[in-house]
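Problem 3 from the worked examples.
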Amino acid sequence: MAEQDSADTGTAVEKHEAPTAASGTAVVSSDRVENPGFEPHRPRVSDLSPEKEKQNERRVAGLFFASMIGAVGSIVAYIAIPFEAGDPASVQLSNMLIGLGIALSMLGIGFGAIHWAKSLMANEHAVEQRHPVRGTEETRARAVEIFQLGNKESGFTRRKLIRNSLIGALAIFPLPAVVLFRGLAPDEDPVELFKHTMWDEGVRLTRDPDGTPIRAADVTIGSAFHVIPEGLNESSHKLEEKAKAAVLLMRLKPEDLTVSTGREDWNYQGIVAYSKICTHVGCPVALYEQQTHHLLCPCHQSQFDIKREAEVIFGPAKRALPQLPITVDAEGYLVARSDFTEPVGPSFWERSL
């Protein structure tokens, strides 16, 4: 009787719901589900009304024109808005207007393309068969026909207003980046700009950052001082000047130094001063090994030998660190004999423009 009830229950399940196993897990039926096909096509407003079609076309073109306005506006903001490094308000205003212009430029193209696709391009459902390998010539010819059909359906060739406004927006879109990156390049000859710093004859060597003058007697063997020129903290272009004039000061035994001809008086009793700016890409060379007298650049591992006029002994740097000629004044303070005799920083500044 129980078996009959179970059979009856199973029959009922087959008629009204998915069959289940004893554990309650659904049993997969071998019958395939019939493909329901695509939903009935529902024409859009622009498909039914030529006036609405023209209206949507003008909207798409308007978005592309807005993209052009945003790109040009960001360039105007970059040029016209005063940008003072020490004035946070001017920096914020400039960044805000540049960012808004670039955002409008990007969004104009994006929204215009989406609105074009949704309101004007053909919206018929289609199934596209793809081949994993190169197709036959007939297939390739058919692909060309499909591209041509896509061009016809999208109206790219026919809708000149949209096409020309899109081309204009895409052409103007990269210009803000070009202008912004151009602003990073110096207006002057980089060789002359990086060859001359605040160092000059008689300028005292002072501690970074407090600007305290350094006596030669305070520099012991094995010590290293981070040095800036006297008066740097009062400069209106402090950061720019420090980026060129930063120096590392060390003292070695005079007999350990290898001095080339013409540089005999560039050190004072074993005290030497070299540019802190790496000649590879301009990172600060600030790691000094007392035992080996090597300077290490932490960015790309270039090493310089202080015993041999900071020549490169390892890494991608191609030339030695520029040496600052030094001596002492009447009060025993270390002073510069002159400016650097060669450009500081990366070697690429010395290449012809």
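Problem 4, a separate protein:
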Amino acid sequence: MKRVQYDRYGGPEVMAIAECDLPPLRDDEVRVATRAAAINPFDWKLRRGAMRLVTGRRFPRAMGTDFAGIVEATGAAVRHVQAGDAVFGSIDFKKSGAFAETIIVNAAHLAAKPSRLSFGEAASLPIAAMTAWVALLDKAQVGAGTRILIHGCAGAVGAFASQLAVAHGAEVTGTCGPDSIDTARAAGVTSILAYSDVKAAIPGARFDAVFDTIGTLDAGVGLAMLAPKGVFIDINPTPARMLRGFLSRRYRLAFANAGLKHLPAIARLAQEGALRPNVGREAPFSEALTAITEAETGPRRAGKTVLVF
């Protein structure tokens, strides 16, 4: 089968589509015929070597984490899916490999695909929706009446965060660019600020949670907007941000892998229409290298770029 891989850490030029043999299926694994795979910034950050202390230096390495497809076979210990089922999920980033015609994934990393979603839409869910879930429901514990500011409310994570917050009864204020206002309103954001207006909002702000989805909100500004027991949630930590945040004791980090256990709940909300993926472009797998490069280096476009097989 064919997959996208790279033989060293680096930019788009290190990628290639190559033939690869799959290893034998383990008891806790599932083999899936890929129908769609969503491109995330995390994928090219891994290829650039951002996590090389964890991913190591064994090459070639496969690319891609989020996928949707049809189960071909299951390991002896797998009970919740069977051959022929439509599923979606996320491969462990230490292995990656979703940009491939066929993948092998741990059974705990997938769930039944919501029937109302296309394969492309389902593939757009995992990392972004899991990150939003961990941030809002695990870290901030949003509920009815919770006041939350989502910085970057129309991006991949921000849009899901807005939808999750609304679904749980929170009052959502969001920041976005002028071209994303309609997207933010469709996600349920009731009060929208321009990025440049955030500092001006500090004096009257008393948010129970401030969620920075894009890593551009100064931690000090975010903390200044909190109610006495509020929390500032970050998914783009830098040493300086972490130091500033940890000194306050109200700084929280949210990572997608902590949300794997919530995939079935995410699927349920998507089936109910509370979570609505936004696919901006679908590209055939044969054009994967171009699609990944354009998503990485080209102008930002609304919605996810998805490879289809």
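Solution to problem 4. The first helix runs from residue 41 to 48. The chain has a mean pLDDT of 94.
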